[in-house]
Amino acid sequence: MKIGIVNDMPMAAEALRRAVAGSREHEVLWVARGGAEAVRLCVGQRPDLVLMDLVMPDLDGVEATRQIMQATPCAILIVTARPQDNVSLVFRALGAGALDVTATPVLLGGPAGDTGLLAKIKTIGKLIRVSLAEPVAPPPGPERAGDVRHLLAIGASTGGPVAIAKVLAGWTPAPGTAIVVVQHIDANFAGHFAKWLGEQIAIPVRVIDDGDPLEAGVVQVARTNDHLRLDALRRLRYDAHPLDYAYRPSVDVFFGCVARHWQQEATGVLLTGMGRDGAAGLLAMRQAGHCTITQDQASSAVYGMPRAAAEIEAAQRILSIDHIGPALRSRIGVRLL
After folding, report:
1. Mode of pairing for the β-strands spanning 49-52 and 75-80
2. CA atoms within 13 A on the CB side of 151
3. Of 48, 186, 277, 296, which is the active-site residue?
4. Hey, which CATH number is domain 2-129, 1.10.150.170, 3.40.50.2300, 3.40.30.10, 3.90.940.10?
């Protein structure tokens, strides 16, 4: 891939340049010392991927990401020192269209940091190029899920954190509603995502541990790079297979479990994201008689996953992000306080 690097710190920029150039699989197209320069360079030499710093003096990584995605869309990976110290900026950047986040290699300790960065770049390369095959069928199963009567399953990728917060903000679902979120995000940052989401909405948010049951009244968030499934007892489990899926955790895998195993009411919502993950699973949910909704093109940071679902008629309704929340409130109801 052709890669652009954006970092105002010479040492960090050089560490990134050496890591990319040393891989022999990628080319450093240019190095920008700030966000404004990166926006200009993308116009003249659009890369396949931009490694974007967050905190820069002229134009920060959030605004640079937003401008690039508007003018010359391409994949953007946030690479910044101690991302856990800039959680708000990270999620604003993800909302503006960045795919993922990782720490700057120079601060991770040499080769180990390079390896982690290159693995992340390789995964993004697959997201750019690969069309996902049909999801592998989950194991057979379920009986009951306690007091859960309605399952709301939400899948998202690029731009997803902000979109999910907007969908769930301002309401508390009626009793008996379980909410499960599968967001493409690095496992090391999933806990920060859950904490941040919990600060944006009125519903409690928890990361999912292997073996957790579905829980009404809580937003349960996938927290590993393995796929989330429902097992035979309708407990939430992590499974590394299928190993060759570029999308991890895969929305298709979880939606497929809901379609196969959930006999009560369910709603599937597929939000903004690059690629095709979630489309086949959403179609399976619709064919199983569940309600399915996708985000429209105008309000999507990246109209990839919702477009794929629309192309195969997986969605009963295609709505703007501002209308998905009200539609869910109408369908599921709200808790009376």
Report:
1. parallel
2. 28
3. 277
4. 3.40.50.2300
Count Cβ neighbours within 10 Å for each residue of 177-216 and write b for 16 or more, e otherwise: bbbbbbbbbbeebbebbbebbbebbebebebbeeeeebbb
Note if 250 is an active site residue. Answer: no
Rounded to an integer, what distance in angstroms lies between the CA atom of residue 151 and that of residue 165?
Answer: 18
- Provide the pLDDT for residue 141: 33
Q: What pLDDT shows up at residue 232? A: 61
How big, in percent rounded to 5, are the helix, strand and coil portions of the chain? 40, 20, 40
Q: Which of 48, 60, 150, 157 is catalytic?
A: 157
Name which CATH class applies to 150-332.
alpha beta
pLDDT of residue 199: 92
Low-confidence ranges of the chain (pLDDT < 50): 107-108, 130-146, 337
User: Is-catalytic flag, 277?
Assistant: yes
Let me know if 157 is a catalytic residue. Answer: yes
- Residue 74, classified by CB atoms within 10 Å of its CB into exposed (0-12), middle (13-18) or buried (19+), is middle
Q: What residue segments make up the domains of the chain, in order of their start?
A: 2-129, 150-332
Distances in Å between the Cα of 2 and the Cα atoms of 20, 25, 68 are: 10, 9, 16
pLDDT at 188: 85
